[in-house]
Write a structure and sequence with these properties.
The chain is mainly α and 315 residues long. Helix content is 79%, strand content 0%. The protein has one domain. Helix 1 packs antiparallel against helix 10 and helix 3 packs antiparallel against helix 4.
């Protein structure tokens, strides 16, 4: 393994750690009754400002090379953060099932495999494919060990529109895969920092209208903006889980490709569970532990080089 590839693995591992931890900061904000669109808009806008300042100071933001590239950046931001976050949050709301949500989201590596092979002819072998498919039952064990399999709680009227909820969740899956497909294309023409900056700057624009229509009329904006209990978690999300994490993710996609990078998303629920144990918020039962071993094994198999790529590196 060369140094560049080793760095890419370090980048994606750091990314999934940040995204795994992000649940706790997001959960804290949601428990404080911060509306979803306002939360996401503030997080992404802060991240865009941080990236802009850093980019100007260090000269990392490249100018657009073609006007049509702006359309690609709008498409990138539309996929993620907009479609992904909307699909995930409303999918969870309409299904009222964390289990079902996690199961559907865990299919991202499988669709990522299809996209990587279809759009970029990425080379995979039988063990890679086996590893990717192994992550799904592994995640099922992790999820069922925590929540059990419950299609809907339904006690408060939520979870009653299962088809719509499932449609939203699959929208998230398609958005996540589409996001990596476009990232791969844009990193062929721009550095990773530029791609990450435009993704956040444009992404924030998509949330302005829904935030103004649905969230601002229902909240006391001055009270929220003067509360440190709001700013601490939102800054952590903006700095670590958006600015740094998406930058590192983009670098990883550029080096590892869509298929191998997306497989690491299967580790995110494991990171969340592990942090929960460390913080004393939850325990890991034997079913979850078994699932963790299966997922980790699947991820390792998915990263094994194909014969063609190994041969080309030797030559």
């Amino acid at each position: 393994m060369n140094k560049q590839r080793a760095r890419a693995y370090l980048f994606i591992c750091t990314t999934v750690i940040f995204w795994g931890i992000s649940f706790f900061w997001t959960s804290k904000l949601l428990k404080a009754q911060i509306p979803i669109f306002f939360l996401i808009f503030t997080r992404i806008t802060l991240a865009a400002l941080i990236l802009f300042v850093a980019g100007r100071v260090f000269g990392l933001i490249e100018k657009l090379k073609k006007k049509t590239d702006l359309l690609w950046f709008f498409g990138l931001a539309l996929m993620e953060p907009f479609f992904y976050f909307v699909g995930e949050n409303y999918g969870l709301k309409f299904t009222d099932s964390p289990s079902l949500t996690s199961v559907i989201i865990s299919s991202i590596p499988i669709f990522g495999l299809i996209a990587g092979v279809t759009f970029y002819k990425e080379k995979v072998n039988t063990l890679n494919i086996l590893g990717i498919f192994l992550t799904v039952p592994g995640l099922l064990l992790v999820v069922f060990g925590k929540w059990g399999f419950q299609l809907t709680n339904g006690a408060d009227g939520t979870g009653t529109n299962m088809p719509l909820g499932i449609a939203f969740l699959f929208m998230s899956v398609v958005a996540a895969v589409g996001h990596t497909v476009i990232i791969k294309r844009m990193t062929m023409h721009y550095n990773a920092f530029t791609v990450t900056f435009y993704q956040h700057a444009i992404g924030a624009l998509y949330f302005i209208l829904p935030m103004l229509l649905y969230d601002v009329p229902k909240m006391d904006v001055p009270a929220v903006l003067t509360d440190w209990n709001f700013w601490y978690p939102i800054l952590m999300l903006a700095v670590f889980c958006s600015s740094i994490a998406f930058f590192l993710f983009t670098l990883a996609v550029k080096e590892l490709g869509i298929t191998r990078t997306n497989t690491f998303t299967a580790i995110i629920p494991i990171i969340t569970a592990a942090v929960g144990v460390i913080l004393g918020l939850e325990n890991i039962v034997w079913l979850q532990a078994s699932g963790i071993f299966v997922v980790v094994g699947g991820v390792i198999l998915s990263q094994l080089p194909s014969r063609g790529s190994a041969r080309s590196k030797r030559n």
